[in-house]
Amino acid sequence: MTYPTQRTDSPRTYSRPAAPPYPEDPTTATRHLCAGAYLDDAFRNECLRQVYYQPRRVVAPSFGFDAVPVLSHCLRARNAAMVRDSAILGTVLVAAIASPASLLLVLSSMATLQATIATYRLARDMMRKLRNGESLPLGALVPRVLLLVLGWTLASVVGAFASTSLVSQAMGSLGQGGIAGADTALTAMAVGSLFLALLIFLYPVGFSLWRQTELSRMAPGSRVTQPVRNPRLDEIARQQRGNTTVYSGYNQYVGSGDIVETWGFAQRLVRAVRPLAREVDGIRAAFSTGATPTEREREFAQPPFDAQELVDYVRAHLSMLLPHRQAEEQIAGLTVEDRICLSGTEVGQLLPHTPPEVMAAVVRHPTTPARHYLACQVFSWGGELITTVHVHIAVQGRSLYLELTTTALPPCDERFRIVDTVEGHSSVAWLRAVTTGLADTPRMIWRSPANLAAALINLVAGADSGPAEEARLTRGYDYGARVGIRELGREPEMRLLTQLQDVAKYQKLIERRVIASVLDFLDDREIDTAEYRARAASILNVDGGVHNWGGTVTNNGPVAGRDVHAGGNA
Question: CB within 10 Å: which end of the chain, N or C, has fewer?
Answer without folding.
Answer: N
